[in-house]
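Loading example: each entry is read as two labelled lines plus one structure line.
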Amino acid sequence: MPISEILFWVLSTTAVVCSLLVIASRDAVHSALFLIVTFFAVAGHYFLLNAHFLAAVHVIVYAGAIMVLFLYAVMMLNLKKDEESGKKPWFKFAAAISAGLFLLVLTVAVKRTESPQIIGTDTQIGTVESLGQVLFNEFLLPFEISAFLFLSAMVGAVLLSKKQLS
Amino acid sequence: MSINYYLYLSTALFCIGAFGVIYRRNAIVKFMCIELMLNAVNLLMVAFSTVWGQAQGQVFVFFIMAVAAAEVAVGLAILMMIYRNLQSTDTSILSKLKW
């Protein structure tokens, strides 16, 4: 078994187990910490697929920016621990059945498709240079529009969290 | 290495995220599960972009990350406002628009 395959299984197990723990843990801070581990596992998968730029961006954006935002929100909200206690029992079954059926349908659909092999793991498409070429030639307009999206998100977040909308 | 392994992995991650969105009632954890689902799709896009040797898939992942960051910023601001009004982030309280 080559080293990349071993790494794949280790990272996959980490991602799945930690994402299950995100749901299972009672404390929102624990959920956030397990989510960080999941993000790092996904970043490791990007490295395995030779998408180095995306791996770096993923760590910076998700583990850096988004999780800090989540932890700040958890800190400021001061959540009580017994929020999930009044849940109806059929609710758990409904959630499990619907998610399980979804998993079943998708798994069967994947099983029936023909699968191409990942051949070019030594390709250069994931480097900063080639991605920059594509991003600033083919996708220049969406790139500029995403800047407007960020601006409007920033204004919206400030406006929403103001004390009073006079 | 077959692409099927990546398909199964992202399917599992996506279903775990969907399950969490239905199962948990804390709105912050719901947000985290939405991030999990986005991550599953991102992983699959990178895998297929490597299979076909096209960089467009990875550029799309870049845009999805940008949209996810904006979504989290606005969503958590909305959550703060809800908490300020109701003193809770339990989504089962927010049922006034239901009927």
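Chain A touches chain B through 83 residues (CB under 8 Å).
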